[in-house]
Amino acid sequence: MLAVNDRRIIVKKGKDSLDICQLVNGMWQASGGWGSIDHDDAVNAMLQFVDAGLNTFDMADMCN
């Protein structure tokens, strides 16, 4: 089952559900595997997204 509201998608299967934002922020740069990053800048960027109501992050540094 899929339910959608303003910014969130709720995916339910059986007793489990996953409540995610419709916009997912890719954070592959934050892993540091693709070059050096400023950790404070990365955390501040994530907090700005959360403050804007965007609270779903894809933390994979690569996909196969």
UniProtKB/TrEMBL annotation:
Any single Pfam family the record assigns to this protein: Aldo_ket_red
Residue ranges of domain NADP-dependent oxidoreductase in the record: 23-62
PANTHER family: NADP-DEPENDENT OXIDOREDUCTASE DOMAIN-CONTAINING PROTEIN, PROTEIN TAS
Protein name (Swiss-Prot/TrEMBL): NADP-dependent oxidoreductase domain-containing protein
Organism: Rhizophora mucronata (Asiatic mangrove)
